[in-house]
Specification:
Blueprint (H helix, E strand, L loop, with lengths): L12 H7 L5 E4 L6 H11 L3 E4 H9 L3 H26 L4 E4 L8 H10 L2 E5 L3 H7 L8 H18 L2 E3 L1
Parallel strand pairs: 1-3, 1-4, 2-3, 4-5
Helix pairs in contact: 3-4, 4-5, 6-7
């Protein structure tokens, strides 16, 4: 349950990792916020196995997420993404899991994250940085990114154990 006005504490990454050595970590945040990169960094610094829900979706379906969305729509993709998250949480138990930015839009995925017992890191990258990263993607602009953040940030905040900026 979210506490109104609660913002998860921001801590240096190394402090988070030291405080939670034996636990799985789930990374959430907006698209192109750096979740996969952070997952790789945590994998290199710890003995956790890295998983990425988008990679697991591709592994099981043989299709890239954007292909699934084109063929099955967003609802079909979200079902596959939730399956991938469940699989990541079960294989192995001590992992760092990078999620797709929209995973929080699925109530089933939010429930899995809450019940997992994992440490949840909200990678809260400034919108200007994300906009720069997405400059070559015509379907994204600053207004779209801001609108997406407004919609998803409350869910990220609700799930987060820590917020990394």
């Amino acid at each position: 349950m979210a506490i109104k006005g609660f913002v998860p504490p921001s801590k240096p990454l190394q402090d988070i990792l030291l405080a939670h050595e034996g636990e799985s970590i789930i990374i959430v945040g907006l698209p192109h916020s750096g979740k996969t990169t952070l997952g790789r960094k945590i994998e290199a610094l710890t003995k956790r196995v890295r998983r990425d829900t988008d990679e697991v979706v591709t592994m099981f379906s043989g299709w890239h997420p954007h292909e699934i969305i084109e063929r099955n729509g967003m609802r079909g993709f979200r079902r596959k993404e939730t399956f991938a998250l469940k699989w990541c949480l079960e294989h192995p138990t001590k992992a760092v899991i990078s999620t797709g930015g929209g995973i929080v839009e699925s109530k089933a995925s939010r429930t899995l994250i809450k019940k997992s017992g994992a440490i949840v890191i909200w990678l809260d990258t400034p919108l200007e940085i994300i906009a720069d990263r997405l400059a070559s993607h015509p379907q994204f602009d600053a207004a779209t990114i801001a609108e997406t953040a407004k919609k998803r940030n409350p869910w990220y905040q609700q799930l987060a154990t820590y917020r990394v900026t």
